[in-house]
Amino acid sequence: MQQTSSDRHEYPAHWEADVVLRDGGTARIRPITVDDADRLVSFYEQVSDESKYYRFFAPYPRLSAKDVHRFTHHDFVDRVGLAATVGGEFIATVRYDRISADGRAASAPADEAEVAFLVQDAHQGRGVASALLEHIAAVARERGIRRFAAEVLPANNKMIKVFTDAGYTQKRSFEDGVVRLEFDLEPTDRSLAVQRAREQRAEARSVRRLLVPGSVAVVGVGRSPGGVGRSVLDNIRDAGFTGDLYAVNKAFPEEQKDLDGVPAYRSVRDIEGPVDLVVVAVPVEHVPEVVTECGEHGVQGLVVVTAGYAESGPEGRERQRELVRHARTYGMRIIGPNAFGVINTAADVRLNASLAPEMPRPGRIGLFAQSGAIGIALLSRLHRRGGGVTGVTGVSTFVSSGNRADVSGNDVLQYWYDDPDTDVALMYLESIGNPRKFTRLARRTAAAKPLVVVQGAGSAPQGHAVRATRLPHATVSALLRQAGVIRVETITELVDTGLLLARQPLPGGPRVAIVGNSESLGLLTYDACLSEGLRPSPPVDLTTAATAADFHRALSAALADDSCDAVVVTAIPAVGEGPAEDAALAEALRSAAAAVPGKPVLVVHVELGGLAAALSAAMSTAPQVASKAPGADRSRPAEGPSRRSAAEPESAVTAIPAPEGGGLIPAFPAAERAVRALAEAVKYAQWRREATDPGRVPEFEDIDEKGAAGLIGGLLARGQGLTLGVDDTCDLLGKYGVDLHRALPAPTPDTAAEAARALGYPVALKATAPHLRHRADLGGVRLDLADEDQLRRAYAELGELFGTPEELRPVVQRMAPRGVDTVVRAVIDPAAGAVLSFGLAGAASQLLGDTAHRLIPVTDREAGSLVRSIRTAPLLFGWRGSTPVDTPALEELMLRVSRLVDDHPEVVAVTLEPVVVAARGLSVLGASVRLAPPPVRDDLGPRTLPVY
């Protein structure tokens, strides 16, 4: 869109956005321009007389030429109009006009504007006005407007509700038969909460439209067996899809009415009834034509299995961007392209719109994979048919997003959050396109149900216009764990952990009992527990002569012990045992576990004979008759029998079925795998307990927030980005209660002596050259210099070792009390947000990567856990008889740094190094602060879909 040259500002293309509406459909929001006159007139003609009356307070059947000119000519500063469009046509409009205190048209610096909406009747109730309000408010804030005023007729309850439900601070008055609403545009905690709740509902419904369709058409179905389209059609039909199914191929003869019993059509347009979901399997050059047909027919969503997009190079990337733009024009969402497909095993859906030849067993695990190959691997591990082998657990829904051009893991998380059929979410992510949003959604989801993630080290999917994080892979992983994500390293661990969490209760702590009939296997399990940070009791060896009854008694005793939080049973079958003995052992373990359902039980088995078959006699996690809420107790019976072949390799994980009222007992072929899964469950359970009381961000009475803001503003006026000098650094940190020990430059021995006299002895002499800075191990530091003679001798020694003063850059600093040297850092990442990091100073910690991280703002409880989460934390708490240091002072320092960065996003980096923590108090001996215009916070702006 272009605006005429007479306008004061160029067309603001960055205001364009795609949004998900309340019902899960999408719309395009963009500025209204002079080119929209015909669209505006057509839109207005489709609005009812009642809606026109509510907008203009009088009968207003049609727009005059003057009206059309007024509503399409904007300066994009004092007069702005936005339109929501579907299929290129207006479905709603909003505009603001800047006004003065007396209500007349005005320009800046006036900071109030009058706002008005008009929504087509057919699209009312879809949340269009709420989305437009978010976007017009963001535009107004950008143009210096701080307050909106709106006049609404009392009978226009829908529009009044749009304003009052938005969460802004507002005033309401009634005069001359009109309700006048005034509200500030500064986001509040309530407005953000409202916005995010609407986002969750809208995005969850948009995914539901794809996973729970009432009708599906497959476009690109071959007339003969074989090919992608025909395979998907056969898979949908064979799975028993409960809705209407259609086969579409423009090459079908006109007289052909069906294909193997499925109604056949030459075009989606020819289908008489509604079509909710279309699977696109045509050559890439024909996809745009199919998208147009689907959009004009009112299709809600697309699964594009066609390849040849961003994965194929620059031309493919542009083709992919155009595909997304084209689909969103019609309000459709896309899974793919280059997707493996989607699956929903619910009995009232039974959708297998994928390339998986068989429907997975129904269950309560949700599965998301960006990679089709990984999706295939996960499905085959979670469910195996053929050869008498049945999968280890069941799937509720499966999404393989391919190139992830539109629907992403974030969208699927929104759906799983309140999906009653999903208890555990497993995700394989090659990348995280929006870490800030993913972390927020993950924290909320993990509070209700386990979320297990394997994160690849890949880059953002081709074709995505997302800000890349500058944080190391390990830091992102640490932040995910802070949000409650169970972060594992391999697909095997993903399945192991998911199986345990799907049917076993969460452990109450790290105490583990080990019982079994193999002393060696018990000791291996014991060592594995120690390696994973668990607290195992000495193994109870039942000897190889143990019977099923012995196992039952030992497991019952372990579960009844109050000092036990979980039990690992190790079992090796005796030579010559047959199916009867195997079944008896399995029944003994099941019945003992069922008697104490509140503690998890795992089995480590060595597979001989038919033991594996007995252990995996029924491994479904199918939903039971009773309803189930997110986060509820997961110890319910499995449903339906299953078989396991004794020929299955040992790498498989099996499960022992529990009787009525109990949960599946997972069995593992290796002690390390069982214990690793248990350790993840222990850490997750601890996070769940702590998440109920996350702590608070403390207020410090001595913080001078306004003074810091003034100082930052004055410093930034010098340039776009700068690293502060010593004096400015001391001044800024001081306003947040952080005192920095000043270091005085010492370019000569005489200036060093003068500096020492000013500071007072004893002093330290340090070389600050880049290759020596913070490297005391290299000998560039001399401490406890008690007088001038010692200082001059030390100055000469440094010169002999390292060169001239110009090369050394020596400084003199007052000695601080002895303690432990630590480092506190804060940085604002454009994708992940503000991050606080902590570790011990020194090369060893850097080499080991022993640094802990938390998202800002940090609470008091998070500061405490940050100090304790590094591997070298014992050095702070009296390791090997040393004096414990003042960790409360260290936690307070981190809280103050967190407040500084959170209050002033212009502070994009802070480093305090070293921070010497003594037995009482601490000393900040070095600091650097960098200021810059803050990165744009997309999580505080209006809801939008990713830009292409």
Overview of this structure, please?
Helix 8 (287-297) packs parallel to helix 9 and helix 12 runs parallel beside helix 13 (473-482). The model is unreliable at 1-7, 384-392, 608-613, 615-651 and 658-662 (pLDDT under 50). A hairpin with a 2-residue loop joins strand 7 (170-175) and strand 8. The chain contains 27 helices and 40 strands. Helices cover 33% and strands 22% of the residues. It has 948 residues and is an alpha/beta fold. The chain starts with 16 loop residues before the first strand and ends in a 17-residue tail after the last strand. The protein has an 8-stranded mixed beta sheet, with helices on both faces. Strands 11-12-10-9-13-14-15 form a 7-stranded mixed beta sheet, sandwiched between helices. Strands 17-16-19-18-20-21-22 form a 7-stranded mixed beta sheet, sandwiched between helices.
Sequence-ordered SSE layout with sheet pairings:
Layout: E1 17-20, E2 26-31, H1 37-45, H2 49-56, H3 65-72, E3 79-86, E4 89-99, E5 112-119, H4 128-142, E6 147-152, H5 157-164, E7 170-175, E8 178-184, H6 189-211, E9 215-219, H7 228-238, E10 244-248, E11 258-259, E12 262-265, E13 277-280, H8 287-297, E14 301-304, H9 314-329, E15 333-335, E16 341-344, E17 351-354, E18 362-369, H10 372-382, E19 395-400, H11 409-417, E20 424-429, H12 435-446, E21 451-455, H13 473-482, E22 486-488, H14 491-503, E23 511-516, H15 519-531, E24 535-536, E25 540-541, H16 548-560, E26 566-571, H17 579-595, E27 601-605, H18 611-615, E28 654-656, E29 665-668, H19 671-691, H20 705-716, E30 722-723, H21 726-734, E31 743-745, H22 749-759, E32 763-767, E33 781-785, H23 788-802, H24 805-808, E34 810-814, E35 820-829, E36 833-840, H25 843-848, E37 851-855, H26 860-868, H27 887-903, E38 907-917, E39 922-924, E40 927-931
Parallel strand pairs: 5-6, 9-10, 9-13, 10-12, 13-14, 14-15, 18-19, 18-20, 20-21, 21-22, 23-24, 23-25, 23-26, 26-27, 27-29
Antiparallel strand pairs: 1-2, 2-3, 3-4, 4-5, 6-8, 7-8, 11-12, 16-17, 16-19, 28-29, 30-40, 31-34, 32-33, 32-34, 35-36, 35-38, 36-37, 38-39, 38-40
